[in-house]
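Reviewers of the previous submission asked for a worked example of the structure-prediction workflow described in the proposal, so we include one complete record here. The input consisted solely of the amino acid sequence. No template or homolog information was supplied to the procedure at any stage.
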Amino acid sequence: MVSATAGYGKTTLLAEWAQSLLRNGVAVAWYALDSSDDDPIPFGAYLIASLTQALGSIPDLAHIAQLSRASPEIDLQRIIQSVINAVVSSDQACLLILDDYHLIASPAIHSALAYLLEHIPENLRIAIGSRSDPPLPLARLRARGQLLEIRTADLRFTADETALFLNEIMHLELSPEMVATLEARTEGWIAGLQLAALSLSGRSDKENFIASFTGSHRYLVEYLLEEVVSRQSEKVQSFLLSTSILERLCGPLCDTIMAEPSGSDVIIERLEQANLFVVALDDQGYWYRYHHLFRDFLQTRLLKTQPERVTSLHRAASEWLAAHNFLREAAQHAFQTHDWDYAAAFVEQHSFTMIIHSEISTIYEWCSAFPEEVMRMHPMLYILQCWPLVFSFRRQNRGRIEERLQQAEQVIVTMEDNHLAHELREHAAIVRSLLTMAPDLTVDPREQLALAQSMLGTYPEGDAGQFSALLTIGYAHMALHDAQAATKVLETARQIALRGRLYFGIVESSFHLARLAHSQGRLHRAVKICRQGQADIAALLTYPEKELPALGCLDIALGCVLLELDQLVEAERELIHGLELIGWRMNPYYLMTAYVALARLREIQGLPAEAVAFLSQLEDAWSDIAFCTRALRVMHSLRTAPDDPDTLAEASTWCQIFSSSFSEDVSPPGIGPFGAAEAYYLAYLAWVRAQITIGKVQAARSYLVRQLDLASTHGLTNRVIELSLLEAQARRAEGEDKRTWAALERALVAAQPEGYLRIFDQGAALNRLLVEAANRGISRDYIGRILAVIGMPKALDIGLEGARSSHPPYLESGEYLTKRELEVLRLMAQGASNLEIAEQLVITVGTVKSHINHILGKLDAHNRTEAVARARGLGLLEI
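From that input alone, the workflow returned the following structure tokens.
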């Protein structure tokens, strides 16, 4: 902790230390705080940005960065935990510098930083520069020997350092007596010595000048700064006062402030050469800032002498910064004009640009800065303030959102400008349509359908509002299982978006058309739609807008199809890229689609921990569908360890809990994003699978039959395949062979035309059914392809070639040996006893016996010798 009042060189010391560490391979994250950072939202965002710049792209940081930008409600404590995890995972020594920490007063930030200090990783150090001691557990850190304190006494110049600075660096040629006087008067205060040196430069009456000033640091600063500034030309003085409103300055920006075509670069260069409290912020000499003391003095003088210019200066700065895409800084100046109409116009103009660039939380900050009476004059601010709350997609935000929308509508009805009123109503309608994404099966899509259809006629042909209404109609049709009607409506919406160059409209409609095609079992049609959507956007946009975040949803839809077609490398590339782009969360359905597919992909690749991690990230991003992620975790456990007693017990407990919330009165969930229908469908699907696995088939059968009937009626082929496979397993469990083969054949007939593969990769029970079905002559060649893909190329002995997949090795029975069972088997082959196996694997002898019993059963062997012989014959010991 470097703690001293202004002007003692805290920042300079930290900067020199940082440079020294960088030369020695230590990463340095520098966070220079200002007053706008005294809020958990920007503090968390800039903390992540600083660490990302220092450490590079780390998954934990990237994930929490997306959440912090997308939600105004992200908990700073959670950000700090992610920071800890990211630093630990990087293995890179890192220094985090928090400069000017005295500007922070937020208890939440102090608490979060205290937590970080209490749980600091081994490879992280923190340096705090502050004018006062921060309210952190300093005494505890001091007692533990974890705190290095550098204070005023350590920073002030000694007599020798004062002489060196004044005579060797500033070339003042002062006598020892004059040096001693200055050192005594300034008490080694570095800023005071620099100011004195600047004032003495070129004077002939140095001794008299030194003798003339006395007093405290504050008065000394004012005296010396007045002296330094008054010695500059009028042009330079005007430049200093005018540009003092800027937190950072460059030549072109200062030219705008000064209303001059050029010349500012030269002035800045001269100020730097004269050591006139100008600090370079980059190696190129483009951006600079004034020393805080100097800037404070200049701003005070500006307000005292030319208060009428302050508003116009801030407005000029805001306009230049906005034109050059420095929107955060531009907004600060817009608010500092205290011209609320201008600030409101700025926010209205630039908010959707911030959405595009994932800065959704910033919009909430901006809108929250307006007084209520200003928002009533500018009702669009009410609507904009809803967007960050909508993007969190939490049920509890509905009331706040509806309140804001009603406040806006109360003003809209009184407006004389009909065109503007119509535009505002469109924006309110879009917000309301997005509210339907929140998980809720009780919301009736027919009501939304009627409302959207009534709105449709109020918009002119080709209007963005018409597109929004059609999108809502499409959502409602999907929720009602009517894929055909939804496809027709969304194709119309897509054409409107193309004609109107509505970028988001093209992406959104193409995404849902692709997902509809997927749900109808038209996999290759879905691929074509995604490719066409990408081409349409590429034709309309120019670089760098081609990385428009919303485009990520088309990558996600494409990745899901490629996963089903077993093009795993391509699927992973598309899903990861899409997820990276879509971090701003225009629609949470995109995120859910991506995370569920990635979890399944990792499971296929034999990476169960990563699969679970993706489900956890989904829950972080959309906490309201925790019921779904919990269901998917249970399903994941059953697929990876179907015979494990603990897994079965966990599944049974979850089924009981889920069944208690199950209602026969609620319609089976449809498709698409409306009311998070897909999340409910996945949860119910997991419940059915779990019930079959734990032997409670009858409990799930009625729901299974009802969903299958709906899927068949509406041509939802993807669901027909999934549900038919479950029905086949349920019928087999109940001994109904005829119905078993009918259900399985139904699934195969529906899946074969488009080449479905991975939908059949559901574990040993289904594998056994597939092998038996092929032996009965049911789709033998197609089943052979499926089994080859899922790691059983020799199961049918039909000459299929194929390397073993990343799955655990399957046996001809459709079962497979787990990783632990393979380890035990190898040791058995080496002749190890039960005790020796237990000691080597660090497990109990009883657990070893249990594994051996499982191995004997799966290999149909009667003893260890027979099991080893059969394992060798199957090539299991070579894996």
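Residues 502-582 form a domain with the Serine Threonine Protein Phosphatase 5, Tetratricopeptide repeat fold (CATH 1.25.40.10). We consider this example representative of the routine output the project will generate in years two and three.
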